[in-house]
Amino acid sequence: xxxxxxxxxxxxxxxxxxxxxxxxxxxxxxxxxxxxxxxxxxxxxxxxxxxxxxxxxxxxxxxxxxxxxxxxxxxxxxxxxxxxxxxxxxxxxxxxxxxxxxxxxxxxxxxxxxxxxxxxxxxxxxxxxxxxxxxxxxxxxxxxxx
Length: 146
Prior knowledge:
alpha+beta; 14% strand; single chain; 47% helix; Alpha-Beta Plaits; HMA_dom; 2 domains; 3-stranded antiparallel beta sheet
């Protein structure tokens, strides 16, 4: 009787170990998942007109509202936004359309006129201002007085 109980317990232990072994992630599976994630993440930067911190919040919020956009960072001095997105869910034109709908001109799409007119006064930028200035920096802007 004692041998039967020990044998039964050993069989249960063996079954549990083998089922856990099948469920545990392997280094191969983890690397494959990571590679798939990395492949689908894309980065892009393009010009967006705006003036102030309130513009920054609105522009970034509009970009992040697009399904698949992981991050958005608008540089006020460069008039440029950098986005990270899942290329299988989002595309750059969709992001530019969302920003334009919020009232901001992008390199490819002019802002919705009504949305632009409804921006606060401080956010109604000069519609002919240069954008996507890759050589400008926030630090250089802060060195001179306004």
